[in-house]
User: Fold this.
Amino acid sequence: MKKWLIARKLVQFFIILLFLSPLFLVEVAGTNFFYGTLSSSEIFGIQLSDPLGALSVTLASKKIVWGFLGSALIVFLFYLVISGRVFCSWVCPVNTLLELTDSLRKRFKKLPDVQFNLNIKIQIAVLVLVLSFFIGVPIFEIISPIGNTLRNLLFVWGIGSFILLAIVLFDFFVSKRGWCRYFCPVGGFYSSIGKAGQLRVKIDNEKCVSCMQCKKVCFSHPSILDPAINGDKTYVTSGDCSLCGACIDACSHEALSIGLRPYRQKEYQIEITNEVKGEKL
Amino acid sequence: MKGLGILRTIIGGFAAYELLKLMKAGSKQVLRPPGASDEDEFLALCTRCGKCNQACPYKSINMGNSTMGLGLGTPFIDARESPCWLCEDFPCFEACPTTALRDIEKRTDVDMGVAVIDKDVCIAYQGMRCEVCYRECPLIDEAIKLDIYLKPDDNIHAIFGPVIDPEKCVGCGICVHKCVVDNPVAIRIQPREAGGLL
Assistant:
């Protein structure tokens, strides 16, 4: 049973339904309980805004709007406590689209997979903020594939579709999950706070047989699982982990789980040495 | 790897095409929803979330597409199609999270632009009684008045010419929407001063 996959697909589906709900609910009476997009939305009167977008707007306009920053702070604190990139695998509609690309990719074995530095996305996030400040326009809000996907669904068809197309082709032909793994500034932003998250993928080193099944399915990047598999850590520390749960579903030895991060790393003395473990891949 | 190189060019081309299209369009002067701060500040403050669009009960607010350049995703009003009906409670302004729309308490606070009448096209100035813009204006006899005078060289007919008071006109565009003259419309809205970003 791929229970994490099913749970995640359900959440993704309801998130899209939620954002589309004003299209069919608002006509009935007054205002829908929910409206807005991922840039900023309102649910039962509570404002929620995208933290990176809010920072961009604040830097671009050089004005502090407390209400707006407050609405972004709610979202920021949520992801800070849970784990930054939970947004990526559970909420982001572009990821939902790129997962389809990825599953299509699996049918073609010989597609290249170009690797980049995982920190590029954090650098792009910083670049977005700096550019917003100097140009005076929240630059990523305009071209953002996330924003444009929702705009396409809610407002005008065809906005930013060439950027989306480029990303899909890039993911398909050049680099597996390339946009999410290496370049998306929103992912970069959440990745930078990801280490602080209290929910983590934990590993039971006594059950792990280093079969590397988890690494094959990792959404973020297989290398983030290495410290845990090697026995250096008892949980995945990388900020890139999006808690998608694919590794847990894939593990046939039930060595992986999602839980609260331990206060201290347990000191395991594992009999198999790291070198032997690594060679099995 | 030759095939991959070509593919990369194509992929980069798609992204570049979209970005160049945005840059080419620059920023355009359009009619913004009520309460919009001046254009440069508006472009900086608007987070392009579309809540004002969803809040508008008349579906008057459109979202800019890529022909609007940096205005992509920003709200604007096409007055001829559907103007701002100046709701008492301004739901669009209430929905805005960033104060890109702000400082409105009553209708007269709105300053979206000013209506301009083309006297050569307006049939009222040709001697026909029309008055549609005058009658439909929510600020009748304030923003728009009738200038009634005898038609020169004609002792029988009078002119009932509409005159805009630029100080009072809020630029809602209801007159543009209702104008009976087509191609070109005799009245249009000159949006409030736009900055020049690009």
